[in-house]
Known about the structure:
- There is one protein chain.
- The chain is of the alpha+beta class.
- It has helices at 19-33, 40-57, 95-102, 172-176, 183-192; strands at 7-14, 62-69, 73-80, 105-111, 114-122.
- It has a five-stranded antiparallel beta sheet with strand order 1-2-3-5-4, covered by helices on one side.
- β4 (105-111) and β5 (114-122) form a beta hairpin.
- α1 (19-33) packs antiparallel against α2 and α2 (40-57) runs antiparallel to α3.
- The radius of gyration is 44 Å and the shape is rod-shaped.
Amino acid sequence: MNTANPCYYHLEVEIGPRRVEQVGRILAAHLRHWDLGVLVEPVTRCAGLLLRAIETHATNKNAVVEMWWNGRHVVTAVSDTEPDLPHPHYGPDGYLAQIAALSDGWGNCPATNGKTIWFSHRARITDSAPLAPAPPAPTLRAARRLPRELPVAAPVAPAVPAAPTGAEPVPAAAAAYAGQPGAGMAARAAVRR
Length: 193
């Protein structure tokens, strides 16, 4: 978002049936030029509500639309020559209630030859921030090799006890149990068979 340069736009217009939509497109183009495309819809809706009220109820259809961007807020003001809005616009379904619901702040003030109604929208920096962090960039360092495998000693066959003279040789099954707990009993059982 453009936060360094404050911007201002001024438009004098005679309101007619087609001019309300045209003014909305002009305001949208300026907001996009200021990198504030997020605010196009609420600003044009609020300005359109005020311009339609002037078109419907004012005797003099001339109006002035001004828009300021101060780096944090967009303030839009619509001025006309009527001193007051008709009473129904102050009710819960009136234009002013809709503007209050759509904007961050609003107000009105008397002018030398009529009134000015303004509203503001705050530009949130988080609207343009990415939702997920970017993945880390690869580095130029060489990759480390995987840990070396440790050499594993081959299993050593247990030593076969020598057979006493005059006795039978120890069977292979009994030799497999040699050196383990209870191996003596297994060897004796194998010899007895």
